[in-house]
């Protein structure tokens, strides 16, 4: 089998962000953004990558080779904090998502268009 790449079939590296963990990190880093957090997040209670390698994950995002999975917004019980996190996620999407295949739990199921 020969794998050929084109714009429609490019591989993406999954990056899972636990929103509850991100919210806790924001408590100590209130002026930071979601892109600042990427690379500092954990996987099975271990830091996802070394500090020296954070730039690799960010480059994957910049060039569209990452699949960002955000999980657990419902676990943030403080409504004000949840709103702040949603705003940070929207800013991240506006700045870094450059693909028409953006999918969200808030999408309209019929038209697959993000709701404002």
How are helices and strands ordered from N to C?
EHHEEHEH
Mean pLDDT score: 78
Q: Biggest β-sheet: count, sense, barrel? A: 2 strands, parallel
**Overall geometry:** globular
- Number of domains in the coordinates? 1
* Helix percentage range: 25-40%
Widest sheet, order of strands? 1-4
The number of helical segments is 4
What is the CA-CA span between the terminal residues?
A: 43 Å
Structural class designation:
alpha+beta
> Any idea what the radius of gyration is?
15 Å
Binned strand content: 5-15%
Any low-confidence stretches, pLDDT <50, length ≥5? 1-6, 108-116
Number of strands: 4
Structure description:
The protein is of the alpha+beta class and 116 residues long. It has one domain (11-95). Helix content is 35%, strand content 14%. It contains 4 helices and 4 strands. The chain has a two-stranded parallel sheet. A two-stranded antiparallel sheet has the order 2-3. β2 (42-43) and β3 form a beta hairpin. The longest helix is centred in the C-terminal third of the chain and has 18 residues, at 79-96. The model is unreliable at 1-6 and 108-116 (pLDDT under 50). InterPro entries: P-loop_NTPase.
